[in-house]
Records
---
Amino acid sequence: MNMGGDDNIAVCCEQAQGRRAAFLRALPKALLDREDSIAASVATENASARSKLRRIYKLMDEMAVHREGKVACKQGCAACCRMNVTVSALEAEAIAAATGRVAARITESVSHPEDEYLGRPCPFLAAHECSIYVDRPLACRKHASYFTSEKWCSLPHVNTVQAPLVRFGGLDDALALVSMRKNGAVFADIRDFFGMPE
């Protein structure tokens, strides 16, 4: 296949679905079991919310290793940094602590239309690279393109295909649990917390 020039959407989607299936088959059962049980595990763990958050990130990173060779993602490709990125207030606090930037105080979850930030860069995108890669939120760690090229992740093509993704329900539940505050877990776009890039 021509890595960047194949315009056959059906073929590209079929290949992406196959690559996603290959990733899922590559995941060891023990890792899948840990993902299934992580919410229950962090619920009973005597540790700070930030420590639990790092544990969630570590598990996702362990799973992501098995995506190698099955995704279009690579250093310098920043298409996914130009779409909605939902983070919890806890994650925003961790990013603020790591970067020295001040996160807006948001007390209620904010939802946006799916394409509101399509094509608009994340406030932490610098020279086509993530400036907070080590501290990036779970949404970024989970996201991957199973296509063979970044073509289908970028405008205008991103709106023409339904990209095959993987849902990580255990990790999502764990993040909601550790992000819980008096009024519940607060989620918003990373731009709600840190504004648009200058």
---
Amino acid sequence: MMSALTEGERKIVIFCSASNDIDPKFNQAAREVVRAACSLGYTIVSGGTVRGTMGVVSDEAAACSGTHVGVLPRFMAVYRHPSLSETVWTDTMADRKEKMREGTCAAIALPGGIGTLDELIETLTLAKLDIYKGQVIALNVDGFYDPLIALLDHYVQTGMLDSRSRALIAFPRTPGELAELLK
């Protein structure tokens, strides 16, 4: 089980890529986001692996002496990052997503692949249903999420999504703009 929040503790979840083959600017943005979150006193929750941007998040949290909780399904144990402050084990990927969001006040999607998109859209859906109470944020580095923004706007224009629900997700373009949302 994930530890209970202590008085005044704030947690954010970071969804991100497990790929090692991405543009370095995305990993640099991840470092900046983690540094900002640590400086603001947030506990970071992530996928907790050594792979791709998840590994960068883990490395940077350790470098900042931040508290970092990794949530991994047992079948991914070989990828566990050694610097995690705490590890939460799950049986399935669905359980992993639920545990990652648990007790967080913001869910941040960095540029990532299909798994990140799944985590982001599920979290937005839960926010729309008033189940997830935190902020939903997608860091739009160099327009990475522009196609998603266009799709969500298309959904509003066609009546598939109401404008109140569309407003539940923010798309800051820089780590600095994202940090402002966390203050």
